[in-house]
Amino acid sequence: MSSAAQAAEPWWALSYRTVARLRHWGLRGAAVLYLGLMIGLPVAAIINEGFGEGLRALRDAFAYPGATQAIILTLWTSTVAAVVNGLFGTMLAYVLVRYRFRGRQMLSAIVDLPLAIPTLVTGLMLRAVYSSTTPVGRALEGAGIKVVFARLGILLALCAVTLPFVVRAVQPVLLELDIAEEEAAQTLGASGWATFRRIVLPAIRPAIAVGALLTFARSLGELGAVFLLSGNMPGRTLTAPVLIYQMANQWKYDQAAAVSTLLFTIAFVVVLVTTRLARARTGEDAA
Amino acid sequence: MSVAVERVRSDDLKRRNRRRRLAHGGILALCLTYVAALLALPLVGIAWTALKPGWRTVTSTYAMADVQHAFYLTAIITVMTVVVTTLFGVVVAWVLVRQRFLGRGLLNALVDTPFALSPITVGLACVLLFGRGGWFEPFFAARGIQIMFALPSMVLVTVFICIPFVIREVQPVLEEIGTQEEDAARTLGASVTQSFLRVTLPNIRWGLLYGIALSTARSMGEIGAVLLVSGLIQGKTETATLLIFRWVEERQLAGAYVVALTLAMVSILIILAIEWLKRKRVREDA
């Protein structure tokens, strides 16, 4: 490439090709080492601690008071959060993209807020409104609805923390969608709902799935927001991440690691499916 | 006759328009209610609760040594985490986009791992590696280096949590810009460093800044991961979120709300920066 420049260089200088090769392998080595040490190693340590002695730790963990209920509760609330935010997230994305109204920018910013607010602060925020000492909380309790220190509180915390996921997955797809198709359908007499169901929904369905799956995976591990709202009553409002925390605090590392591995495996499969879906979608666009 | 038909049609159209406007209004109201219940109202709630006891509570909270140290520690952890995840994040994104090799898919899957791991599990992993009886405990203990219950372990777990942000924001941009411009710069005699600084970096800057903003927000507010590794030593390894955590447990709610409101304000600033970046990026794309 630059034989003239190369000839001018002193004899001890590395050849252009050697430098390029060193850089190539150096960068790759840095990336592999970084991810291997920072992510691979901790994951290996968890799996080894949890399943190093076969299934004994997992059996012990399930014998822990309230453990089974905690895992079921976490799976259940995460599913509900994914469905609820799948629904409202889609609506919000639609509203943000297709409607023009005052305060739209502000709504968009508020929807993104959970990406930046510490989850523990989100929990405290919800407590400031819904605990039984506030007017709102009292009113709800008068109506027989208990939020704080109840399962509804867990759900509220999960929905708040994961709100941006579906919206941010669906929004770009909606933005790219040609509005002419929808207008054509409406001109031909289709109702608003029929237009949405037949034209918009098929296009954004993969994006909704991606957002909802991410919501589910994130909800499985959420601790900060839930901690202050759930009350952590074993068998009733104790969630799996808080269970892991309690086990670790009692030096039961093997059981904590076993439950961790269980949750992680579920979440990881979900995340893998999600990235596949997301990639399949961009692949389609390219074709 | 035809006039009548026209009238019927326009009546029909009007009715449909009215129905559509009603449906729009209904959906909008539903969305606003949902967001208000989950986020807007709680934000007002926390500001109200924190400021209700008067300005004196705020100033006296800020004057406490524990509070100042907690914010200082949070700032240090955040800066260190952002520097590490940004530098390595760009390298990893580059390697994943520009190089093809065996195990690239595995590396890609590793990047997604922190999204699937509960923060508390990350803390647990750190305990298993560096805590008593851990894999690396003898090595560091022999050299007198304190990892657990000190800054190193807290930075390590926070870095783990924040690894994906920069990578996942930079990767698609790198993929999109391709190598043409870089190749052109190299052919014209630019060194690798020059072509990276002058060509690649300006191209990826918005994605990079976006990733940095997300990383900053997350590391500032992390609680689950540091809960186990910090040892919760008051005034020493207590970050702002851990301080809130302890104060809520100790029923010192007034102070907890003030610290929480402060963190929320910083988060709002980060969100405003993110919104600005988004608009900037859209404008430049157009």
CATH class of the largest domain in chain B: Mainly Alpha
Class per helix and strand makeup of chain A: mainly alpha
Tally of separate domains of chain B: 2
Low-confidence parts of chain A, pLDDT < 50 over ≥5 residues?
A: none
CATH superfamily of the largest domain in chain A: MetI-like
Q: Ends of chain A: how far apart?
A: 35 Å
Strand percentage of chain A lies at: under 5%
Any idea what the CATH architecture of the largest domain in chain B is?
Orthogonal Bundle
The biggest sheet of chain B amounts to: none
Mean pLDDT of chain B: 90
Helix content of chain A: over 70%
CATH fold description of the largest domain in chain A: MetI-like fold
Oligomer: heterodimer
Descriptive overview:
The complex is a heterodimer of chains A (287) and B (286). By secondary structure, chain A is mostly helical. Chain A has two domains: 3-51; 56-286, MetI-like fold. Chain A contains 13 helices and no strands. Chain A has helices spanning 3-8, 16-51, 56-63, 67-98, 104-112, 119-130, 135-142, 151-176, 179-187, 192-221, 224-230, 240-249, 253-286. Chain A is flat. The two termini of chain A are 35 Å apart. The mean pLDDT of chain B is 90. With 286 residues, chain B is mainly α. Chain B folds into two domains: 1-52; 57-285, MetI-like (MetI-like fold, Orthogonal Bundle), CATH 1.10.3720.10. In chain B, 44% of the residues are buried. In chain B, α3 runs parallel beside α7, α3 (65-98) packs across α11 (240-249) and α11 (240-249) packs antiparallel against α12.
